[in-house]
Amino acid sequence: MSDGRRIRVAVLYGGRSSEHDISVLSGRSVIEALDPDRYDVVPVQIERGGAWQLEAARPLALEPGADSRSLVSRAESSPALPGAGPIDVVLPVLHGPFGEDGTVQGLLEMLGLPYVGAGVLGSALTMDKDAVKMVLRGAGIAVAESVTFRHRRWDAAAVEAVGYPCFVKPARLGSSVGISKVHGPEELDAALELAFRHDWKVLVEEFRDGREVELGVLGNADPLVSVPGEILIANESEWYDFSAKYDDGGMHLAAPADLPDAVSADLQDTARQAFELCECAGMARIDFFVVGGDRVVLNEINTIPGFTATSVYARLFEASGIPYRELLDRLIALALERHADERRYER
Question: Measuring CA to CA, which residue among 294, 273, 145 is closest to residue 213?
Fold first, then answer.
């Protein structure tokens, strides 16, 4: 802060989605890593049922448009309470719906609070695997072919154009929840039923036989892109499923990936282009397939990736020369910078 005082950071974690437990791990890791000499941390856990709580299970009081920017009511406010005093910046570490999809970002905009990460549009767009594909295709960025079904209605004949094997995915969920690899028509109905338990919109996506490579992006107007990292599945999973992502020893990240220089440059250029095109800000992890040795196909954009010190996003920047604590410092500075810039415009 320009006045030299410590920065008060509210860390939001948990959330209502099926990725609640992963978010709790990310949030606790961030809280432990934030430099205590620079930041006053206000932990805010969102319960699976939706309640927002400060330490000691104290309910929050949010005041849209208020000048206090505190997380406790004015009647209760005292220096001894964890949410008392103005919040300088919010660091959402919420994965999936009700956190990564623009809903929390819209609330923070209404509260007038600076926050880390993409805004409402970038968050909502990238969360929707169907909508973001349309935007990326329009810009000439290669994505996997897919067909979309809605409201538990599907047509097996339409899947034939995608081909088998294929993947069936809820359109707006992460961490491989609700996703199935379908080897033939006999497995299709069960996979669609599973996906429709999580979302009313579902994609059936072609199988890409390629190397899985991920890159981190950090910045606002002139973002920095990490070295590429290749995902190598180390357990018995057939694909990069929940078990491979989160079980100990389920995967190995090779960063930097062993790729030709031209392919690495193409990945970095495409990641930067997609980040800017989709109006991301602060951070994103962008996932690709490298097919046939040199063809880059964008798979997914994650605006709030897993955020423990051993998560892929942090490890990609560690391999790029930015350690975890410095990464958090940069993200907070970027959030404050973007908020100050937004206030320059007359609206």
Answer: 294
**Residue 47: which of 116, 100, 81, 94 has the closest Cα?**
94
Segment 112-162, tens digit of pLDDT: 999 999 999 999 999 999 999 999 999 999 999 999 999 999 999 999 999
Question: What is the bridge-based pairing of β-strands 180-182 and 166-170?
Answer: antiparallel
Distances (CA, A) of 289 to 98, 184, 221, 319: 28, 22, 26, 20
Cα 298 to Cα 205, 228, 237, distances in angstroms: 13, 13, 22
Q: Which residues contact 273 (CB under 8 A, 6 or more apart)?
A: 139, 141
195, two tokens: 């996906």
- CB contact at 8 A, 179 and 243: no
CB neighbours of residue 192 within 10 Å:
21
Predicted model pTM:
0.91
Residue 144 backbone class (left: φ over 0; alpha: ψ -120 to 50; beta: rest):
beta
Are the CB atoms for 197 and 173 separated by under 8 Å?
no
3-state SS, residue 224: strand
Confidence of residue 30 (pLDDT cuts 50, 70, 90): very high
CATH 3.30.1490.20 correct for 146-206 = yes
Report the topology of domain 7-115. Rossmann fold (3.40.50)
Q: Count the alpha carbons within 13 Å of 303 in the hemisphere toward its beta carbon.
A: 38
Does the domain formed by 126-142+210-335 have CATH 3.40.190.10? no
Tell me the domain boundaries of the chain: 7-115, 126-142+210-335, 146-206
Higher pLDDT, 287 or 245: 287
237 phi/psi in degrees, rounded to 5: -65, 140
